[in-house]
Amino acid sequence: MVVEYTERGEGAAGEDEYVTVHDDDEVEEDLEVVQPTEQWQTLKSGQAVPAGSHVRLNLQTGEREVRLGEEQMKYWTQEHREKGKVQSSFSPDELKQAMKKIKEDLNFASKDTDHQDVVASKYRPLEELKKDMAQLDLVVETDVQIMRRLVDQFRSSNTTTEQRRSILLELEYLVHQVDNAESLCSMGGLEFILEGLNSSDFRLQESSAFVLGSALASNPVVQVKAVESGALQTLLTTLATAEPLSVKKKILFAVASLLRNFPYAQRHFLSHGGLQVLSELFRLDGGGILRKRIVTMLYDMISEKELISQAHLDPVPDVSYEERVRQYSTVSLQGELLEKGWCSLVPQLLDSTEHDYREKALRALLAMASVCLDQYRLNSSLLSSLLSLKDQYQEMVQSEMIVGEENSYFIEIVELIDALQVKMK
After folding, report:
1. SS3 call for 268
2. Largest Cα–Cα distance of the chain, in whole Å?
C-alpha cells in the first residue's frame, strides 16, 4: 500500500527537505510492500510502505529511505529489535481487505447510537467501587462526612490540644468552599469555633479565628449565623485581650470577613465599640502591620458605602438596590471615624518606611476627606509629610523613567498625594 505521509529529511548541507509519498485508495497489484524497521533503509522504485511510516529523501545519495513512524515505534517489541527487521507475509490483496475492514468498523462506530452506553459500561459505579474499597479497608468520604468526623473528634474529651489544632487546620481548608462552610454551621461547628476563641491557649485562639475568617469570606449565610450567635462580640473581646501578634492578625482577618458587604454587621460593630477597640490596637502597634490591616479594613468599609450609589456595583444578589441603599444608610461610619479621632490617627501610618503602608494610608485619607478635611488642614505634621513624600516619590519616578520603566508603582503614590493636596487647598 502506498501511504500519503510527509517526513523531514536531512540534506547534505544540513538543510531539511520534505518528501511526500501519495496515498492511493486502490493499491496496484504489482507493488511490493516494504516492512520498515527502526533503522533507515533504502526504498526502491515501485515499493510501497505501510501507513504511518516515515519517508525521507537523502540528498547525499539521491535515494528515498524509510523507517518506522512514531506510532509504530510504540508497538515495536524487543523481539523485533533483536531481529532487526520484520518479514512481511501479507500480499497487497490482504492489505487492501484489512484497510477496508478498518474503514467499515470506523463507519459503524460513528453511526452507533449506543456509543455512549458502550463507553459508560467501561466505568464502574461509585457505589461498587466503595464496596471494593471497603473490603480493602479503604473508606471514601464526602466533605460533609469528613467534617462531621472532625467535629466529633474535636468534641471528644480524649482529644489533646495539639489534635484540636490540627482538626481546625483541616476544617479551614474545607470551609473555603461555600457549601462546606454552611454545612459546618449546620452541624454546630460555629459553637466550638467560638469556644476556641475563648480558650486560654493562644494556639487554639489563632486557629479558631483562622477557620472562622475563611468560613465567613464571601458567604452571607455564614455571616448572618455568626452575628446571630454572638461572634462579633467574641471577636472584639478577644481582640482587646489577646496578647500574641499572630492571634490579633487572625482575629482582624475574621472581623474583616464578617463586616465585608454586610451593613447589618457593620452597624453592630459600631454600636459595640468596634472603632474604639481598633483605635486602642492602632495606638499600641509599634510595628505597623496591624495598623495597615486596620486602615485597609476601614477603607474597604468606606468604599463599600460609596460604591453602593452605583447600582451595577451592588455585590449582593437577590437584594434590591433600594434595599441596599437603605441598609447602608443606617451605618454612620464616617461620623464615628470623626468622633473617635481617626482623622488624626490614620496620618500616623505615613511615618512608616513601607511603601505599601503609605499607599493604604493615602487611600484611606482620601476616602475620609469628606468628614476630616478641616482637621487635615490644621494638621501641620500631615502637611509636612505630604510635601516630603511627594519629593521622595517624584525622585523615585524620575530614576525609574531613566532606566525605561514608564509604568511605575510610585507614580500611583504621587497621584494619591496630589489628589489629597488638591482637596486640602
Report:
1. helix
2. 104
Q: What is the pTM of this model?
A: 0.67
Alpha carbons within 13 A on the beta-carbon side of 228 = 8
The secondary structure of 396-418 as a DSSP string is HHHHHHHTT--S-HHHHHHHHHH
Mean pLDDT per block of 10 residues along the chain (425 residues) reads 40 39 44 77 79 76 79 55 49 70 65 60 74 64 92 93 95 95 94 93 96 96 96 96 94 97 96 96 90 96 85 60 87 93 96 95 96 95 96 91 76 95 92
Contacts by 136-139, CB closer than 8 A, 24 or more apart: none
Nearest residue to 368 (alpha-carbon basis) of 342, 332, 339: 342
Cα gap 11→280, rounded to integer Å: 80
54: CB partners within 8 A, 6+ apart: 5, 7, 36, 66, 67, 68, 69, 70
Q: Which amino acid is at 360?
A: K
Beta sheet of 63-67, edge-to-edge order: 41-43, 63-67, 54-58
Residue from 189, 209, 187, 213 nearest 198 by CA: 209
> Distance between CA 20 and CA 14 in Å, rounded?
19
d(CA 61, CA 40): 13
Q: Decide: helix, strand or coil at residue 136.
A: coil
What is the C-alpha separation between 288 and 292, in angstroms, rounded? 6
Burial of 43 per CB tally in 10 Å (0-12, 13-18, 19+): buried
